[in-house]
Design brief:
mainly alpha
């Protein structure tokens, strides 16, 4: 749940305070992991009252998920006219060399098994949207007759997210751009019945 979604109508938004709260949450996730990232600790670090946080995020889970999402690039399942480019550009959501972002996400992922509410929110807001964007790309190219209609869309769309989250858990780092491109060329495209590195094009 984002700050925008929970902002009371008619209340002026203090973007500076929200930035401090998000940054404080991210710092604490790195320093103390999820368990040690309490609302009280965030309030102290952000120099605000706990009520200021709860006016924007109803629970700690909402706040932590918002802090993780703030580190990620915007999803944009583009239509470039090339299957490979559509897949590659959409999958770049999982690319990054920022060690801080990787450590923040790693803290979230490491806590999923112990908190069902966190698992549900993270799956909904962090895990599912990127896979859905890749599914959208694949289904677009199925409709154009380029990709066979019988491919396991959900399974293939999950290949890049699985590899990316695995990298974050094991190395506390996102995949780099070369790794994402190699995944598309050597794994995803062949799984879709396309030659590795295929630049198959179709007129929309």
């Amino acid at each position: 749940m984002s700050a925008d979604a929970t902002q009371p109508s008619g209340r002026p938004r203090d973007s500076g305070l929200e930035h401090r709260i998000i940054e404080a949450t991210q710092d604490l996730l790195i320093e103390r992991e999820y368990v040690g990232t309490t609302i009280a600790a965030v309030a102290a670090r952000a120099r605000c009252g706990k009520s200021a946080i709860y006016r924007r995020w109803e629970t700690k889970v909402d706040l932590v998920v918002a802090a993780v999402r703030a580190t990620q690039t915007r999803l944009d399942p583009q239509d470039t006219g090339s299957l490979r480019e559509d897949l590659r550009r959409t999958a770049m959501h999982f690319a990054g060399s920022d060690e801080r972002s990787g450590r923040i996400l790693a803290s979230l992922l490491s806590a999923l098994g112990s908190d069902p509410d966190l698992y549900q929110a993270a799956n909904r807001d962090v895990g599912s949207p990127p896979a859905a964007a890749l599914r959208e790309v694949i289904e677009r190219w199925i409709a154009r007759g380029v990709v066979p209609a019988d491919v396991p869309v959900a399974l293939i769309a999950g290949l890049v997210p699985t590899a990316a989250f695995g990298s974050v858990v094991l190395r506390k780092q996102y995949l780099d751009e070369d790794a994402v491109t190699e995944l598309i060329d050597r794994v995803v495209l062949p799984a879709l019945g396309q030659p590795p590195g295929s630049a198959e094009r179709s007129t929309p």
